[in-house]
Write a structure and sequence with these properties.
The complex is a heterodimer. Chain A is α/β, with parallel strands linked by helices. Chain A is built from 9 helices and 10 strands. Chain A has 2 domains: about 130 residues, Rossmann fold (3-Layer(aba) Sandwich); about 80 residues, no CATH class. Chain B has a single domain, classed as ABC transporter involved in vitamin B12 uptake, BtuC (Orthogonal Bundle), CATH 1.10.3470. The chains are: A alpha/beta, B mainly alpha.
């Protein structure tokens, strides 16, 4: 099958630091693909390049065969490529419902409507409500985002992305800082996404990665080191040395 | 319940200017100025309070609207509503054109670019004396009766109801706008500009749109001032007007449409009374009030009122 998301020799430098070096990556449709590697390996930079948050210095990004290397971030979202952020990017002064409705309005193409109040756009509101209900967030729907505990805010980070109905979802350490019991629930929710949603995941918790991923790419020092099914990666000598070995030392 | 209260408060608020007409009947010129200034502050609230675009040069659009309406009337098209439309159009066009400069970069860049653009326009108006009258102001602005029925009278009765009606109408439109999905997206941009493109929002275009709308509002306010005073002074574009505007909005509470209105009323009333008592130093008290508001009540008078109401409700 042709890959749904593909990079060819993608590179990005910050001054003298090479954050991403000649990365050529294929993501298959419907994949549950994890991207792992030590801190500073360039995983978040890669997500930033894929989503259009950053422009690459060299190389290309293809989305379903279309060259999107210079395409603005919001246009990639319209094509179904949606990301979450490692550090929460939320709307602190809005209620939970308002911020999710903001996202559903945008998905439904209502962002320019200026005459009817938000609550009259029933479709956007009901879609947001259903999503919050499926994430067990309905009871905090009317709370201000900033008043919520971190674990809940982390869920809203995901909810905003899910509200865009992604076809390809890039998750940057979704469970970072979330208590173990809640992170398991979070992953169960992600795993329940329909199979036609492609998922690329950065995660440090190896239990979660090996439970969730069907394919794993290892990144070190800005470059790809290995890519295979989890069983092979788990036994790869190089991966053990640079990645798992380091983790055991720590 | 709380929605009920705020609805009633809104109705009560809009009864005030009607009452004011009867109570302060001999001060209608001042009341018209308050309505016009309120509209001007509202225009800044739309771009700063809702979309987070800071500006130190918003008087440029006020001035463009004022000159557009003044020149139109001077050369024979003295219909007031036509003048308002011209003021809105000229200012919106300038807002649209300058938005591409303004929306680049950080808050500091925006402050400097808006300031720079307004200084250039001020000096242009100063220099083009044949056109604007320069420091002597634009003379010979002859207004036709409003709707062909109400001529502008010496007691400012027409001026007052006219300014008030325009303020009310544009306030109502702004109120719809800020509560719509478009308005919600502006609040989103203000609160987290990093996230918005990741939701599929064309951030730059939204900002261009609201900046142009804010400019149009300011242009209408400028045109109103010209029409109700039948004169354009060069200081419609002065830096002090932009600075005062920012001050009133912060005082009243930005990001709240009523904050813009209440800030204007408080400021203009304080100006009027303090300047009577202490004509030379009234700005001292103004400065003190501003410092206190910024340090202790960041969301202005409107924020204080809201806190009082919620405390009262509990």
């Amino acid at each position: 099958m042709p890959p749904v998301l593909e990079t060819r020799k993608l590179s990005k430098r910050f001054g003298g630091f090479i954050a991403c070096n000649d990365v050529s990556l294929n993501i298959q449709p419907g994949a549950r693909h994890a991207l792992i590697g030590p801190n500073g390996a360039g995983k978040t930079t890669l997500i930033n390049l894929l989503s259009g948050f950053l422009e690459p210095g060299a190389g290309e990004v293809f989305l379903r065969g279309e060259n999107v290397t210079r395409l603005a971030q919001h246009r990639r979202v319209k094509r179904g490529l949606v990301r979450t952020f490692q550090i929460n990017q939320l709307f602190a002064e809005m209620t939970v419902l308002e911020s999710v409705v903001l996202s559903t309005c945008e998905r439904l193409g209502l962002g320019w409507r200026w005459w009817q109040p938000v609550e009259n756009h029933v479709h956007a509101v009901s879609e947001a409500t259903e999503l919050l209900s499926s994430l067990h967030l309905l009871d905090v729907a009317q709370e201000k985002v900033r008043s919520l505990p971190y674990g809940k805010r982390r869920l809203i980070e995901i909810a905003l992305a899910l509200a865009s109905k992604p076809q390809i979802l890039l998750l940057d350490e979704p469970a970072a800082g979330v208590p173990a019991s809640e992170s398991r629930e979070l992953f169960e929710r992600i795993a329940r996404l329909p199979r036609d949603v492609t998922i690329l995941l950065i995660e440090h918790d190896m239990d979660l990665v090996f439970r969730f991923a069907e394919r794993i790419t290892v990144m070190v020092g800005g470059a790809l080191l290995a890519e295979d099914v989890p069983e092979v990666i788990a036994n790869d000598r190089r991966v053990k040395e640079v990645y798992l070995g380091e983790a055991h030392d720590a | 319940m709380s929605r009920d209260i705020s609805m009633r408060a809104e109705y009560a608020f809009w009864l005030l200017p009607v009452l004011a007409y009867f109570v302060f009947g001999e001060n209608l010129a001042l009341l018209s100025q308050i309505a016009i200034t309120a509209l001007f502050v509202l225009s800044l609230d739309l771009i700063l309070g809702y979309a987070g675009i800071i500006s130190l040069g918003h008087a440029a659009f006020f001035g463009l609207g004022a000159y557009a309406a003044g020149l139109l009337a001077k050369y024979g098209w003295g219909d007031p509503l036509l003048g308002l439309a011209a003021g809105a159009l000229v200012a919106a066009t300038a807002g649209f054109a300058s938005s591409f400069l303004v929306l680049r970069g950080s808050d500091l860049t925006r402050l400097m670019v808006t300031l720079g653009v307004s200084l250039m326009l001020f000096e242009a108006a100063n220099k083009l004396t044949d056109f604007t009258g320069g420091v002597d102001g634009l003379q010979g602005v002859e207004m036709q009766p409003l709707l062909g029925l109400f001529s502008f009278d010496l007691y400012s009765k027409t001026a007052y109801w006219y300014s008030l009606a325009v303020l009310f109408l544009l306030f109502w439109l702004a109120r719809r706008l800020v509560r719509s999905p478009f308005g919600l997206s502006l609040r989103g941009i203000k609160q987290n500009v990093t996230r918005m493109p990741a939701l599929g929002t064309p951030v730059h275009r939204r900002l261009v749109a609201i900046y142009s709308i804010g400019a149009a509002y300011a242009g209408v306010a400028g045109a109103l001032l010209t029409q109700t005073t039948q004169f354009v002074s060069l200081d419609v574009m002065a830096f002090s007007r932009s600075a005062e505007l920012l001050l009133i909005l912060v005082l009243g509470g930005s990001g709240n449409l009523y904050g813009a209105l209440i800030g204007t009323i408080v400021f203009m009333a304080a100006h009027h009374f303090l300047a009577d008592i202490n004509p030379q130093y009234w700005q001292f008290w103004l400065g003190a009030a501003l410092v206190l508001v910024v340090l202790f009540a960041r969301d202005g008078i409107m924020g204080m009122l809201r806190r009082l109401v919620t405390r009262g409700a509990q």
